[in-house]
Description:
Elements: H1 3-28, E1 45-49, E2 53-59, E3 68-73, E4 76-83, E5 101-108, E6 114-122, E7 125-132
Antiparallel strand pairs: 1-2, 2-7, 3-4, 4-5, 6-7
Amino acid sequence: MTPRNRAAWMWQQAFEMLDEAERLHRHFFQLSAQPAAGPSWEPPVDVLETAERLHVLVALPGVAPEHVEVVASGGTLSVIGERPMPAAGSAVLRRLEIPYGRFERRLDLPGGHYEIEQRELMHGCLRLTLRKL
């Protein structure tokens, strides 16, 4: 293999690794459009609607219930909180793929009025039930 081909191969590998890193970042870190002082990531959400209720499932693995605030007001549901960085002590950080820091997710609710009927954080997911009024 000539030096020119080796260099081309190395550049190709580097670009492929960068593309994969960007793909993973987009997949796992739904970054908010808020300024840097605001929340730094948005958790993924599923919303299911029945005739009487909305069921909302927010993926928040590793987030303690006391670090989550839920507000339903003016046709918007807001889930706000923080996942603190783990205390590593003298450990060396080798990989950081899970988003940490402040998060916020705002959802526009379908037309109507709602009240939060049930809220539980279980198995890494916040489950909300909003009753239609």
